[in-house]
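Appendix B. Chain record.
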Amino acid sequence: MLFNRYSAAITAAATIQSVAAQTYTDCNPLDTTCDPDTGLATYRFSTDFTTGDSSFDGWNTTSGTVTSTDLGALFTITEQGDAPTIETEFYIFFGYVEVKMRAANGTGIVSTAILESDVLDEIDWEQVSTYTDEIQTNYFGKGNTTSYDRATTVTVDTPEDTFHTYGIEWTASATNWYIDGAVVRTLNYADAVDGTNYPQTPMRVRIGIWAGGDPDNSEGTIEWAGGETDYTAGPFNMYVESVSIINYNPADTYTYTDQTGDYTSITAANGTSDGTTVSSSSSSSASTSTSSSSTALIATTSEGSSTTGAATATPSASGIVFSSSASIDGSRHLNADAMLSQALS
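Structure tokens predicted for this chain:
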């Protein structure tokens, strides 16, 4: 388990977690009033990074240089200090994200695909290249790093030589991690300190690579990464072929109405969809129209008339409730198209 590596270097744990997830926030709504987050106003957003420079439309490069190649977006570390990173220009508010990725090789190199919010809610995939048959899952609520027992290590075949699809299904009551369509971990809302530590605020998708084994890092960080990085053995390359995103609550903007960081305090403005706009209603009936919605459509697994392995949309006083089972059989294979079809069925 990943926790064993953390416990061996607990004095450096805060540094490990901060760098590993490449975390930051420009404005934290828990501390001050921030501008609304720009939302994804459609249900679907997909990127094929093999198609050239135009494939980066909808993405910002926040560090280094990322280029399109025949294998996908290329993230390269060639020297100390390199940490190329991209993130979406928009936020989603519950949904499904899948990243088809081939992780980097080399001692101490960390390939990451994460979701992160302004209040530092976070859901992670992290592949530490030193360990060639595994990838790690993790999560944080509101930047809370008071404990380091949240991570798990998942076996995966040759992640540095083979493309795998890493998925995150994120709703108000549960989060599922997928590898190639199979569930490998489930986190329920109640299991994250009764929801206090559960990621539940609008998030961007952030993808990047960094050297956990950099000689200038703390001893604990280098130990967690499996040893010092030898830059002369590079370059170290991560490829991301494609990304598919489903936003369960399409909207132009998301606004924090208070400083609780609770999903019920988030309002969505001018919600739209791919040709079908779901409109909220103050009554118990739900309607589909071309009008906009001023209320967040909360995606949840604990309400509505769902059955195991299925997702349904049911009326609610606050709008449409998307519901899917949190207890999904690990043999069930899903992809973004199937997720969207189920959510809209």
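Further analysis of this model is presented in Appendix C.
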